[in-house]
Automatic annotation (TrEMBL):
It comes from Anaerovirgula multivorans. This is RNA polymerase sigma-70 factor, ECF subfamily.
Length: 80
């Protein structure tokens, strides 16, 4: 069992919170950190900048807000 700081792995933690985790879980966290660092290096190396007006609907997917069932029902009642 190893002790990790949840603040390092989760952005919602603003204070230091130490937790003991199994070695397998620690290995998964470390593997994810290595993969994320490799992705950032590759993105920097190949200057992979993406444009939202490229035409592949990325902008639409980002801006689209799905409505909850309550909101859909309220809109239906309002329109009636």
């Amino acid at each position: 069992m190893k002790t990790i700081n949840l603040k390092d792995y989760y952005p919602c933690y603003t204070q230091d919170t130490f937790v003991e985790v199994p070695d397998e879980l620690l290995a998964i966290f470390e593997e994810y950190a290595r993969a994320e660092a490799a992705y950032e290096r590759k993105k920097y190396r190949y200057k992979a900048h993406y444009s939202l007006d490229r035409g592949d609907r990325i902008e639409h997917d980002i801006l689209f807000v799905s409505l909850s069932p309550d909101e859909i029902y309220e809109r239906k009642l309002t329109s009636e």
